[in-house]
Amino acid sequence: MNHWISIILVLVGGEALSVLLFWILSKIFTGKDGAGISKRSVFKGMVERLFLFFALTHDLPHVLTLLGALKIATRIKDENKISNDYFLVGNLLSISLAIAYFIIWREVLK
């Protein structure tokens, strides 16, 4: 299968699943359907996973450290523990999804 077609297939399928997973996560942490999920946050998550997936498919695993540092620097807040827990779990889930995309691509589609 063409390298780029396999990457696109993994991303499209994974992002469809991620929307559902983040909706469930939001419901668990806030008790409301889709609360805290905006189009902006969905787009940012997609860009983040796209960045990680492309980096991993091109043998650049060090970007995980870079992304972690950037995310910590932009999320440091002490005012709301639920918000911090929500962002921590959301960030871990997002990075895990990007790694899963890479594994699926490498093991199944490559």
Structural summary, described in words:
With 110 residues, this protein is mostly helical. The chain has one domain (3-109). Helices cover 81% and strands 0% of the residues. It has four helices and no strands. The protein has helices spanning 3-30, 39-57, 63-75, 81-109. Helix 2 crosses helix 4 (81-109). The longest helix is centred in the last third of the chain and has 29 residues, at 81-109. The protein is globular. The model has no long low-confidence stretch (mean pLDDT 77).
Short description:
The chain crosses the membrane at residues 6-29, 50-74, 86-105. This protein has four helices and no strands.
Labels describing this entry:
globular, about 110 residues, mainly alpha, 4 helices, about 80% helix
- Pairing-aware structural class of the strands and helices? mainly alpha
Question: What would you call the shape?
Answer: globular
Low-confidence stretches: none
- Rounded mean pLDDT is 77
Total count of domains? 1
Proportion in helices: over 70%
Question: Over all CA atoms, what is the radius of gyration?
Answer: 15 Å
Q: What distance lies between the first and last C-alpha atoms, to the nearest angstrom? A: 7 Å
* Oligomeric state: single chain
Strand content: under 5%
Main sheet overview: none
The helix count comes to: 4
Q: Note the run of SSEs as H and E.
A: HHHH
Number of strands: 0
Transmembrane segments: 6-29, 50-74, 86-105
Keywords: Membrane, Transmembrane, Transmembrane helix
